From TrEMBL:
Pfam families named among the record's database cross-references: Adaptin_N, Alpha_adaptinC2
Localization per record: Cytoplasmic vesicle, Clathrin-coated vesicle membrane; Golgi apparatus
Biased composition (Polar residues): 603-623
Name of the protein in question: AP-1 complex subunit gamma
Gene Ontology BP, a term: vesicle-mediated transport
Chain positions covered by the region annotation Disordered: 603-635
Keyword Transport among record annotations: yes
């Protein structure tokens, strides 16, 4: 016989394919076999049709195209015999899916087979329908399936229930038709029918709230009975798994109970007794028992259970944490994360076990346990938990140090009540894992130290000692260098020694040694730059070391990094030639505003655009922040936060200097202050370090001219330097404000025009006009804006979402702004424009600070 004729047996073809040694040989065998099958199909060979389809199914499983045999499936399904139908339905499920148009032709055959007198043919039709049913087929055949749910044969009932699940998922509107038959399935004794019936009820609850209420009313009692019977049933070998009767039915029933009891006190109360029985009697030494216990815990936490049952559930999870199986411990940690929101106190009892999981060898368990510990921290246990985590930080794996360090820093910052404790814990973290500490964390530590004058001496001495043993930790080196540069004289003179401190003797040369080591051994440019600044400051604090410091600084005059080279040359010039201004230039930094810094960090970690204000604030939001020292600070000026400027308005006390500094910084930028103004104030203003409070005469351009002939404003106005940002109050009842170009790029131009409401000077109506400067139209145009906290912003819908190309059209949008500090603080706004050009997403952002004064 020809090995590739239609009469070839399936096993012979499989043997021929498996004998191939290369992929090319296999493709050749399959190609010849497919050619023979095509020839047989074209000849309408009925004798070998079922054999050909069996071969096609094997070829399909190998990944070769078999679409030419789809019609053969339909012909076999239409046959009268069971063997042909079986191969036909199997081919239908393998070779076709619900998206094939050919499937529409089989609906009539399915309907006939669902009404067939042979139960096995009915079972074939139900299996096929349950696997490839489309929405149209579901609507056509749902009555037949619903009828089959009420037959006597348990196998037909089971298959009809599974087919009903598919129909409900495809057409949820049909769910109400299956409510009655589904509830009647729960009265069956056959476990296969029960599992299928419970799953059908579960899908009904998901698909329809009406079905949920119906099943809650009619099925709760039946579910409790099923669970009680299964739990108390004697040994049954056909359902027994590891000594437990049918754990699969246990789990399905518990899941359905959770859905019915959620948010319903009456149903939950009816379930409490049986759930307590399952939780206490189920053995936990086998995996099947643990699966039932876990599902029981989820049900207890999901329904309106009593507090005693919830404590019982959490205790079961605590036992899971002691299990040697990593999978069981992981799911227990996941469940405890959800349980914390329900009963935090009960979870706290297992804190010790959870801490042990943080030290587990499995990375996923460590990470999940660390997240759970972070949630468990509160004001009463923060010190003990932090100590445990820091102790483990010393011996933890390198790949875990980053996550652990971030969590410890967050805990210390969020829950610290004492500045000293906060500083001590951060120093420990910097010493053990300084390379993993993020910039925001050590910046916050510096802000804290600058706000704690009584702890500055202690801080610089502690950092000096830590540097001797941990100078490879980059963040520790930076904080140490900064503190020695600022408070070096406190280190040498032992200023502010605390009772618990051990005596420490440090000379001026020792302090310089630390900075020199940091400069030479660090490869980080930022650390080297900070070290050079610290050396410049020490040259003023320790005059005897000035020449040595100059030599160290000059070693970098030929550095390949331009930043370091420039600093080296400039600092050398200051040390060598400008002794008269050096002390003013390098005097101690003003106290950094702690609340302003925290507010800025919070603002950078969450969306500030008005379109995102409806989202829930995160834990890092300003409302949930806790100052590290536990002291309430006045709120930061929002304008300063928005413009990234310092809001420290305290006057900077500095000795007067010669006119050299004035000439160095740019001549007649600002006229001399009438009383006590110092050149240092100019430098600090340029560097955004602080703003002087002493008034100066500032030249103000006549930017607001009246079109009605009103008198122009004077050319000079006595005002603080910050009035350059804050603007001048309007003296007109209904002033006219000029339009401004708020934003312009290569693609967009935005123009703002302003009008005031009479009698309400705080409210400004802004008309934003958008013009497209590019040659392509912008679609899906969205404009968003954010303002400081003292301003309220209302955005009206834009006139269109499409912006024509080349300025041929424009979009307008109205903005209503209410400035609660009108006349004192100026408007400022950040904007974001999102649009599409040729179906590609574009995003532009900008900041508007050129609003007319007086808005």
């Amino acid at each position: 016989m020809n090995p590739f004729s239609s009469g070839t047996r399936l096993r012979d073809m499989i043997r021929a394919i498996r004998a191939c040694k290369t992929a090319a040989e296999e493709r050749a065998v399959v190609r010849k076999e497919c050619a023979a099958i095509r020839a047989s199909i074209s000849e309408n060979d009925q004798d070998y049709r079922h054999r050909n389809l069996a071969k096609l199914m094997f070829i399909h499983m190998l990944g070769y195209p078999t679409h030419f045999g789809q019609m053969e499936c339909l012909k076999l399904i239409a046959s009268a015999g069971f063997p042909e139908k079986r191969i036909g339905y199997l081919g239908l499920m393998l070779l076709l899916d619900e998206r094939q148009e050919v499937l529409m032709l089989v609906t009539n055959s399915l309907k006939q087979d669902l009404n067939h007198s042979n139960q096995y043919i009915v079972g074939l039709a139900l299996c096929a329908l349950g696997n490839i049913c489309s929405a149209e087929m579901a609507r056509d055949l749902a009555p037949e399936v619903e009828r089959l749910l009420q037959t006597r044969d348990p196998n037909i009932k089971k298959k009809a229930a599974l087919c009903s699940i598919r129909i409900i998922r495809k057409v949820p509107d049909l769910a109400e038709n299956f409510m009655g038959p589904a509830s009647s399935l729960l009265k069956e004794k056959h476990h296969g029918v029960l599992i299928a019936g419970v799953q059908l009820c579960t899908d009904l609850c998901k698909a329809s709230t009406i079905a949920l209420e119906y099943l809650r009313k009619n099925c709760t009692e039946g579910l409790v009975r099923i669970l009680r019977d299964v739990s108390n049933s004697p040994y049954a070998p056909e359902y027994d798994i590891a000594g437990i009767t049918d754990p699969f039915l246990h789990i399905r029933v518990l899941r359905l109970m959770r859905m019915l009891g959620q948010g319903d006190a009456d149903s939950s109360e009816y379930m409490n007794d049986i759930l307590a029985q399952v939780a206490t009697k189920t053995e936990s030494n086998k995996n099947a028992g643990n699966a039932i216990l876990y599902e029981c815990v989820e049900t207890l936490m999901g329904i309106e259970a009593t507090s005693g049952l919830r404590v019982l559930a959490i205790n079961i999870l605590g036992r899971f944490l002691s299990n040697r199986d990593n999978n069981i411990r992981y799911v227990a940690l996941n469940m405890l994360m959800k349980a914390v929101t329900v009963d935090s106190q009960a979870v706290q009892r297992h804190r010790t076990t959870i801490l042990e999981c943080v030290k587990d060898s499995d990375a996923s368990i460590r990470k999940r346990a660390l997240e759970l510990v972070f949630v468990l921290v509160n004001d009463t246990n923060v010190k003990s938990l932090t100590k445990e985590l820091i102790d483990y930080l010393e011996v933890s794996d390198q790949e875990f140090k980053g996550d652990l360090t971030a969590k410890i820093c967050s805990i210390v910052e969020k829950f610290s009540q004492e500045k000293l404790w906060y500083i001590d814990q951060m120093f420990k973290v910097l010493s053990l894992a300084g390379n993993y500490v993020k910039d925001d964390e050590w910046h916050a530590l510096i802000v804290m130290i600058s706000n704690a004058p009584d702890l500055q001496g202690y801080s610089v001495r502690s950092l000096y000692k830590a540097f001797q043993t941990s100078n490879e930790q980059e963040s520790l080196v930076r904080v140490t260098v900064w503190c020695i540069g600022e408070y070096g004289e406190m280190l040498v003179n032992n200023v502010g020694v605390l009772e618990m401190e051990e005596p420490l003797t440090v000379t001026e040369s020792d302090a310089v040694d630390v900075v020199e080591v940091a400069l030479k051994h660090s490869s980080d440019i930022a650390t080297q730059a900070m070290s050079l600044v610290a050396l410049l400051k020490l040259s003023s604090r320790f005059p005897p070391t000035s020449e040595r410091i100059r030599e160290i600084v000059m070693q970098h005059k030929g550095n390949v990094e331009l930043e370091l080279q420039q600093r080296s040359l400039e600092f050398n010039s200051i040390i060598q030639r400008h002794q008269n201004i050096k002390s003013s230039l390098v005097e101690r930094m003003p106290v950094l505003d702690e609340s302003a810094y925290i507010g800025k960090r919070a603002g950078s970690s969450q969306a500030t655009l008005s379109a995102d204000k409806s989202s829930q604030p995160t834990s890092s939001g300003p409302t949930s922040l806790k100052l590290p020292n536990g002291v309430t600070k006045p709120p930061a000026a929002p304008l300063m936060d928005l413009l990234d400027l310092s809001s420290d308005d305290a006057p900077v006390s500095a000795p007067s200097t010669t006119d050299f500094l004035h000439d160095l910084l740019g001549g007649d930028l600002i006229s001399p202050a009438p009383s006590g103004g110092a050149g240092t104030d100019i430098l600090m203003d340029l560097l955004s370090i602080g703003s002087p409070s002493a008034p100066t005469d500032v030249r103000v351009p006549n930017a607001i001219s009246s079109k009605q002939g009103n008198a122009p404003e004077p050319k000079t106005a006595p005002a603080p330097v910050m009035d350059l940002l804050d603007g001048l109050p309007s003296r007109e009842e209904n002033p006219v404000y000029p339009s401004i170009t708020a934003f312009e790029s290569s693609t967009l131009k935005i123009t703002f025009s302003f009008t005031k409401q009479p009698g309400n000077p705080q409210v400004t109506v802004i008309q934003a006009t958008f013009t497209n400067l590019s040659s392509s139209a912008c679609t899906d145009f969205i404009f968003q804006a954010a303002v400081p906290k003292f301003i309220q912003l209302q955005l009206d819908p834009a006139s269109s979402s499409t912006l024509p190309a080349s300025g041929s059209g424009m979009i307008t949008q109205m903005l209503t702004v209410t400035n609660s500090q009108q006349g004192q603080k100026a408007l400022a706004m950040r904007i974001r424009i999102a649009y599409k050009v040729n179906n590609q997403d574009k995003l532009e952002q900008g900041q508007i600070t050129n609003f007319p004064r007086g808005l």
